[in-house]
Each structure stands twice: as C-alpha cells, then as structure tokens.
Specification:
Length: 876
C-alpha cells in the first residue's frame, strides 16, 4: 500500500519528457507529487489497473491500413481516396489512418448511418477491414472501461495546466470517468508575475489580466537578442548562460536545436545540450536507408559515398576508405581510379583472408555494386526482404564483436521490422516515393535525429515552452521565431455539423492553437527576473522574423514608446553589459577591433608545400597555417565534389583524353569528338550528372565543352603549339629553405622557343583572373614558371565562357594578352613566403590585410573561410 495519503499530479499536454520543475529541481517538488504528460498519465493508470502498456503500432499499422485500402478499392464501390492511393500509396494510407484515429479519439465506433457523407462511409468501410491494434485510442478506451469497473488503489489530485476543453474528446471522457471514481481535477492558475514594476512584470500582468498599456523601459528584464548570424548569437548564449545560472535558477528553452549552439557550448567548455549530430554511433541507424538508396537507377554516388564513410558497415574499413578516395576524385564506378583502388582493396583482402579473399571480394561487390531498379517500376518485395535480412544478420554478428555500440542490436530489429512492415502492406513491389515515405516513418530516428544526451549543467534544457510550469529566475529562449503550425483539420463544415449532431466532434485546429498559446504565456509568466529571447537577424541570407508571440508582448506597451526597438539589443551590447570573465572569452570573441595577428607557440615550416597551399598562405597566413595544421581527416569526412568542382574535374579529364589521342581532330570535328568522350565517360567519372535534376545542367555543360574543344584545336594551330603534356608533375626546392614546393600543371605545350603552360579554371569570373595578372598576384602561374625553368609564357583558360587570359606567346590574342614578368612575380612571391615563415618560427601568425574600416583589402583575397570566427572576420 502506498505511504502517501494522496498522490498529487501536475498534468500538462506537453510534459512528456523534460519538465521544469523536474523530480530533482525546483521549489515545488515534493514527495508524493509528479509532473506527467498524457502518455505518462496513461502509463500510470495502466500500471495501477493491471493493463498491458503495449507500444503503439507505427509503420506496421500504416501497412495494415494500406492493405485494407487496397481491398476497398478492389470492391465495386470506388472510395474517395482511390486516385491518391494510386499515386502515393503510403502517404495516403498514413493520412487515412490519421483521419480514422481523429474520429475514434472523438468517440466514434465506426457506425456511420445513411445520413453521413461519402468520406465517412468510406472510412467506416476501411475501419471494418482494419485488424484490431493497441493504438492510442484503443488503449484510452480500454482504460475508460476498466476504470468504470475497478476502483483506483489510491486517491489522486490532478492539476491540469490546460483547460479541459482544450484536450481531445477521448481524454475528456477519461477525465470524466476518473472524476466519477473520486479523482479531483482542478485548474492551474498561471504563475505569479515578476515582482516590482519591471518591463517583464508589465508584460506578464497584461497577459494575465489585460488592462491599460504602459511605457517601455529597458531595465534588462526583457530582451530580444539580435545578431548577424546564428554563430554569433550562439557564442553569446554560451557565454551568458553560466552568468545567469549563478544568479538563480535558469532554463534554456531550445525549441529549435541547431549545431551552432552546440558548437559554441563545446568551444567555451560549457555543458552541451544534447543536440549535436556528431554522436559516435548515430550513423549506425542510417545503414538501412543508405543501402536502399543505392538500389535505384541511376546509381546514386552520394548514397555510395555515405555507405563508404559510415563508421561501421558490412565492408572492411580499409576497403571503404580506398573506394571513398576513388569517388572523391571521380564520382563514378568503373573508371581508372576506381579500378586501381579496387586492385589495392583486393590485395588487402588477400593478405587478410588468404584463400577466402575471392569470396570476400564478391561479398564486397554485392554491397558496393548491387542490382539497381527503375524508380517507377519499383523494387521487388523479395529484394527488399533480402536487403533487410542481410543488414539484420550483419548487425547481430557485429554486435557480438563490438558490444559498445548498442545501436547495432536496434539496427537488427529495425531491419527485421521494416521487412515485416513491407510484407504487411501486401505489395509485390515498391516504387521509390513509397519506399522513401516508409523509410521516413520507420527510420527517421536514425536518419534525422540524435541520441546524444545533454550533459549535467547548472541550468535545465527544455524542448517546448509547455514543459515550463513552475517559477524560474532566468529564461533563455533559443531561436525565438515562428514555430509553424502542426495543426491538422480533415473535415468539411457539413461533416463537422453532422458529427456534432452525433456528439462526435473531432479535434479542431482551435484546440491546438489554444494549447500552444497557453504554453507561451505560461513560460513567460513563470519567469521571475529576466527573459532573453534569442534570434539572429538573418539565417542563410534570409531575414528572420520574431515569434508571433512577440507582438502579444509588445501590445502591453504604448505604441509611441517604440517597444520593439527598446527591447532589441545586439550580442556585443549585452556581453559588454554582462560581467563575462575574460578568460572564458579568450580570442574567440572579438566585439570591437579585429585582430591583425595572433601570437601562438613557434610554428615549424612545412617540409612539403603545394602551390595551392602556398597561395592560401600568401592571401591569409592564419588560414594557410590552420589549413596545414588541421587537416580534414581524410576521406571519412569527405564528400563528393560540388557541382562546379565536378565540372572542373570532368572537363580536365575530357581535355586530357582528347590531347592524348594519337591524333587531334580537326577544328570542325573537335566538338563531336568531345561530346562522344563526354557521353562515354559520364557514368564512370561524373555519375551524379546522370540524375534527372541535372538534365538541363548537363546539356549546358556539353555545349560549353564543344566550344572548348573547337577553341583548343584553333588556338594550338594559331600559336603553333605542339607536344602537349597533361597533369605535368612539377617540384622544386625553395631557394632559402628546405621546403619542397610541388604541384601539377594542367597542360604544358612546346612552342618554337620555349614551354607554355595553361592553367584550366571552371569559372566565369574573367575580371578576377585578369586582375590577378595585372596586379601581379597570379601566384599559381608564377610558381609554374619557376618550377619549370623553360616556361616563358602562361595563361588562364576559363572554360565555361571560353575566356583566355595570358602572356605573349601563350596563345592569347588581342586584349587577352597581359604584360606580365613571371620571374619578377615569383621573386615577390618567394620574398613574401620567406617573411611569413620567419614570423611563424617566432610564433606570429598574420591575418589578411585590412583597410582602415576593418574590411579586407582588395589584394588580400580574404573572405569568410572556415576560420573566420577565430580572427574576428566573422563579426565584421
């Protein structure tokens, strides 16, 4: 028997999961009381009543609905959803099940009289064919019937955070039955407002009672924190949270988790919030979606690369790394790079598995080069079951070798459940849209969400304002923007009128809006001292508007007071006003003057340096140093080339193939030859361009390459260039140091008097490269000329627009010719490198030059690189 005379329950629609005050926090937490959401409350009742707390059916229930809908369509009567079912089967079944559950939650039992609409009749027929399942409406109805028959073991007093009329009808029926059995239900008054006459207290008083408007005063109790970017507001929150926590209880309301906040928390050594996608094992549950994406035509190189970069997969890690490197260079299967890496992979398997190496390689090929299917025709059920079985078998076997990765067993169950769900649907094959919809429903937990948990912190992290129901001193609302509407409304006015006559009114959008609004009001009114609403001014180039609740707050003030401007402040201003320890800020946050140099420990000069890395060092020593010292980690963090780089790589390869032919075609035939080469090597060297979404882009690329091929032959003939060498390896030691400068020249020709180098660029920016030649910053061409002493002429060839910019004798004509002394340009480059290396050895690392306004100078080439927040450029 319980030791408590009465159990006190705070019941809130949004309290499943986190809550404040929780069981270990807050002034109101006592023995014999608990805060529960609807699922927690139902689970408690089921435990007391001896009912099985079965898990709610998910994908399999939708599959059952799909099978039932198919059966209805085979009958003489054609249901209203038949056209949608033929187009998008899974999504239609999901919507039909939601509509059916909406009616059942309102007390419907499937008995629609003749006066009901056609849609209600069709739903009644569908419900008749659906097998019984322990979904939420059924479990609530079973609890209602059981409560009516059996007494509760203990008196309960329930405080409802939302009015009863805002709960779905099925829950209201349960509450009514519980009241008949002695459970006491009482409403919850919104928490008392902040003390005194602060701006926050004025807003709270207005929201609670209405009344007259007051004058806006910025006293620090209410602030809308604005900044230019997500990164900047994230750093401000990371620095301010510890300060708020030292002045009382604090809640971080993280309604919209994002990586910048998690990164900033980690950078300043603060407890993380649990939103990081960098969970060590998260990608384990991505294996099933990735393997199915690899089964469609045309082959998805991105899906293949995702498979190769998984931390654990049914292919040895060494083999995956080798093949991922091949995809980085040319994203296709069967090209020279792919086959060369495959030979190295087979050698590795032979060394590791000896006589079993050939069988192991065939197993690897089944994963890397599986049979593919047309998206419209669909993937056969037998193939889908085989993929799921292979993944489940591998995951169970691997879990014994690596017991630390607990998600492997979850993956095995997930794959088996997915196969069962496919069988339940009763389909012989699945089109890609249907299969993607099934994956989104069943496997989204592994593909989209995270499993990392927040760390112990002096503040509490909440995911929804409705989870805050008790007093807290400081509230920080991260990304205070429009949450969007998740309200669903399925019914016409006539259907609602008929259902109301039957006393079966389903949930309406007004109920959801009412619950959300009460959650916003309660979160604000529970805050006693200060409320900080965080929102960047722009995100990804788009203006960000505050949450619609912001207008309700401002409505409590006189319009002439300019409340919107009064309460808005910048991250810099707030950090200057708040006592943030300097040791925490360090060199990461530069609110006033941008740095011109950083002092580090002495930095060694690299022994080998590519000319592209040397160019980065010349433009910005800090960028060059960090790029050298902080490599990306190899192919595990790599991706396919972006479209412009893919075009660049592929165009280089096509020109290489044309120039290495036994004989160059004539100018008139060069375009046809280039197009034939492009079509031939597309599947093996640029397979992503086979996707339908790139069809127009591919045609534009072909037109550009035809023009390039014709111009190549014409320029070679006019400039009398011969003996082309492609991808020429160049290497030379710097004069004053042991550093080896190395690189590859795209094309090197022989003229009558000297060598000529062409550097190919996939770019339309003619002005940029012309300026580099005229201003003496064409460091790449200067390095080529120095490393290949016989070079006397060089040029940039911008392939998309067929723009040619170079020196005398390079093939440039007319205004394309630039008067440039390559030897002089190299001397300036070498002197500047020597000066930078000398500073590195003394621990001084410079940053790109800036003018008196703090902007990067034109010659520096500085932009927003991945290290822009280290030097302060990101705050400019």
């Amino acid at each position: 028997m319980s030791v408590f005379s009465q159990l006190s329950v705070v019941l809130g629609y949004f309290l499943d999961g986190h809550a404040w005050p929780g069981p270990l926090h807050g002034e109101q937490t006592t023995l014999g009381s608990m805060a529960l959401g609807p699922m927690g409350f139902l689970s408690m009742l089921q435990t007391w009543l001896g009912l099985p707390g079965e898990a709610f059916p998910g994908g399999q229930r939708i599959a059952q609905c799909l099978r039932a809908a198919r059966s209805c369509c085979r009958a003489e009567h054609t249901p209203f959803y038949a056209p949608s079912l033929a187009t998008a089967p899974w999504a239609t079944a999901q919507r039909l099940l939601a509509m059916r559950n909406d009616l059942v939650m309102a007390g419907w039992h499937g008995n629609i009289p003749a006066q009901g609409s056609r849609r209600l009749h069709d739903l009644a027929e569908l419900d008749r064919l659906l097998p019984p399942a322990a979904d939420l409406p059924l479990q609530i109805n079973v609890a209602i019937e059981t409560v009516q028959r059996w007494p509760l073991p203990q008196p309960i007093a329930v405080t409802c955070l939302e009015p009863r009329n805002l709960w779905p009808r099925c829950w209201r029926r349960l509450f009514g039955v519980l009241e008949e059995r002695g459970v006491i239900f009482s409403p919850n008054a919104i928490a008392e407002e902040a003390g005194g006459m602060s701006s926050l207290a004025k807003v709270q008083n207005y929201l609670r009672h209405g009344g007259g408007k007051s004058y806006a005063v910025d006293d620090g109790s209410l602030r809308l924190l604005r900044a230019g970017s997500l990164e900047e507001v994230a750093e401000a929150v990371a620095l301010l949270l510890p300060t708020f926590a030292t002045k009382g209880t604090a809640v971080l309301l993280r309604t919209d988790p994002s990586l910048p906040l998690e990164t900033a928390m980690a950078r300043f050594h603060q407890p993380t919030t649990g939103a990081s996608p960098a969970s060590r094992w998260r990608s384990t549950l991505q294996l099933l979606p990735i393997c199915l994406r690899m089964r469609w035509k045309p082959r998805s190189m991105q899906a293949l690369l995702d498979f190769l970069l998984l931390p654990e997969a049914p292919v040895p890690a060494r083999v995956r790394w080798l093949m991922a490197e091949a995809l980085q260079e040319f994203p296709g299967i069967g090209n020279e790079v792919w086959l060369a890496r495959a030979e190295r992979a087979r050698a590795f398997l032979k060394e590791k598995y000896a006589d079993k190496a050939d069988a192991k390689w065939q197993e690897v090929l089944q994963w890397l080069e599986p049979e593919v299917f047309d998206e419209a025709t669909g993937m056969p059920l037998t193939v889908l079951e085989a993929v799921c079985t292979d993944i489940s078998t591998w995951a169970l076997r691997r879990s014994k070798v690596n017991p630390d990765n607990g998600l492997l067993k979850i993956l095995a169950v997930q794959a088996a459940d997915f196969a069962q769900m496919a069988r339940e649907a009763g389909e012989d094959s699945f089109s890609r849209p249907t299969l993607e919809a099934m994956l989104d429903h069943e496997c989204a937990l592994g593909a989209e969400h995270v499993f990392s948990k927040e760390e112990a912190a002096p503040w509490t992290v909440l995911d929804h304002p409705g989870q805050l129901y008790g007093p807290v001193d400081s509230l920080v609302w991260w990304l205070f923007r429009d949450p969007g509407s998740a309200c669903r409304h399925f019914w016409t006015e006539d259907e609602l009128r008929w259902l109301a006559g039957q006393n079966r009114v389903p949930a309406l959008p007004e109920e959801e809006h009412g619950r959300q609004y009460m959650a916003w009001v309660r979160a604000l009114c529970c805050t006693r001292k200060q409320c900080l609403l965080v929102l960047p001014t722009r995100d990804a180039g788009q203006e960000m508007a505050p949450h619609p609740f912001w207008d309700h707050m401002l409505a409590s003030f006189d319009d002439s007071s300019g409340a919107g401007q009064v309460f808005s402040c910048s991250a810099h201003t707030l950090l200057e006003e708040t006592e943030v320890p300097c040791a925490q800020v360090g060199s990461q946050f530069v609110p006033q003057e941008l740095n011109t140099a950083l002092r580090l420990t002495p930095q060694p000069v690299p022994q080998r340096l590519s000319f592209s890395a040397a160019e980065k060092i010349l433009q910005c020593p800090l960028h060059g140093l960090l790029a050298c010292r902080l490599p990306s980690g190899g192919p595990q963090t790599a991706g396919l080339p972006i479209l412009s780089r893919l075009f660049g790589n592929f165009s280089h390869y096509l020109l290489q193939q044309m120039l290495t032919d036994t004989a160059l075609p004539t100018s008139s035939a060069a375009g046809n030859r280039m197009e034939a080469l492009a079509e031939r090597y597309l599947p093996t060297h640029a397979a992503p361009l086979l996707e339908q979404r790139h069809a127009l882009t591919w045609q534009g690329f072909l037109r550009s390459m035809r023009n390039v091929a014709e111009a190549l032959v014409a320029r070679m003939k006019e400039a009398q260039l011969s003996s082309p060498q492609v991808e020429l390896q160049l290497e030379r030691k710097l004069d004053l140091r042991n550093t080896i400068l190395h690189g590859r020249a795209d094309i090197c020709f022989q003229s009558r008097t000297s060598a000529v180098i062409w550097d190919l660029k996939w770019s339309y920016n003619r002005k940029k490269y012309a300026g580099m030649l005229d201003e003496g910053t064409a460091y790449q061409l200067a390095a080529y000329a120095w490393m290949q002493a016989s070079v006397r002429a060089a040029a940039y060839w911008l392939l998309p627009g067929n723009a040619f910019l170079g020196t005398e004798g390079s093939g440039a004509i007319g205004n394309e010719i630039h008067a440039v002394d390559m030897a002089e340009m190299w001397m300036l480059m070498a002197e500047k490198l020597e000066s930078i290396f000398a500073e590195w050895e003394h621990g001084i690392v410079g940053i790109a030059e800036r003018d008196e306004t703090g902007q990067a100078s034109k010659a520096s080439g500085c932009g927003y690189c991945e290290f822009s927040f280290v030097c302060g450029r990101g705050y400019a």
